[in-house]
Amino acid sequence: MDTRTEEFVNVAIRIRPSLNVLEESIGIKVISETPPILYAVNRQSYTFNNIFTSKASQKDVYNDIVKPLVQKVLLGYNCTVFAYGQTGTGKTYTMGSDPKTYSDPGFIVRTFNEIFAYQEEYKDLEVYVSFYEIYKEKVFDLLSNSKKSLQVKGFKIDGLAQVKVYTPNEAQNLLNIGSKNRHVGDTKLNANSSRSHAIFTMFCNVKNENVKTEAKLNLVDLAGSESVRKTGTEGSQFQEGVNINMGLYNIRRVISALSANMSHVPYRESMITTILQDSLSRTNFVTLVACISPDLLDMSETIQTLEFAQGAK
Ligand code: ADP
Ligand code: MG
User: Which of 14, 103, 149, 160 could form a disulfide linkage to 138, CB 3.0–4.6 angstroms apart?
Assistant: First the structure.
């Protein structure tokens, strides 16, 4: 039945600039551009759909990864982009889900600039925004002041705000409000380490005499992938780590089940895959951007990320 020739799952790597200029490229090296292959100190080589080196600009990464998906969303396909990786490797920078700190916008702001340029031209597009996070398997609306978690029925989030937006400024405002509301926990690894998954969704409804489509783009800034043992967490934070790793592990299981066209896709085993179920199917498009550090100090986490990303396909 499948007549689609395009891939459902795309896996990309983005290498952030080194914090130690002397170490750049010691641990990992791009050894081929077509196909994109990365060689790491563990003497393994890894092949991906795209590899962005530390020299790639925000615009380059957006143009290759998200721009084609915006076109798909306007044609009615649900699309999802995950930023995965160790804390401090550039997930939030890539998504641009914390826009205050960045003068060079990430995926979210570039996406709505593009969508609103389309709206300006065609006038037949309605756009709604939701922004929520999953923290310890509970869902919190980042656009609401309420600290209460929301109920999930099937894969629908009960009472989640969907705000209609007409201009890039309005969308930017929602992004700012939401990023202020994100949960941040202190761990030994990084005082600002993000322990939650943040999901920014744009719903795009196109309606004119010829077409009627409804689809959404999910831009997901995942929690840090570093292992529980390394962050040295205990008690409630330990539970958090376990929950986070389960969510990340299930995302990979779901993506690889889709890649392999398996009949059973294990959506129900974590909150994030449950909620994104209607976007994570073979009729839609999924991209994983795995963010890594080039520094030797981070090599063991980098290798775990490369293994995770390669295993997703
Ligand atoms: P994460 O969300 O994965 O924890 P961040 O996005 O917060 O990581 O990035 C960590 C730091 O590195 C931030 O100060 C960010 O501005 C910087 N950074 C990450 N990627 C890049 C990049 N490609 N170019 C320049 N700075 C970057
Ligand atoms: Mg972050």
Answer: 149
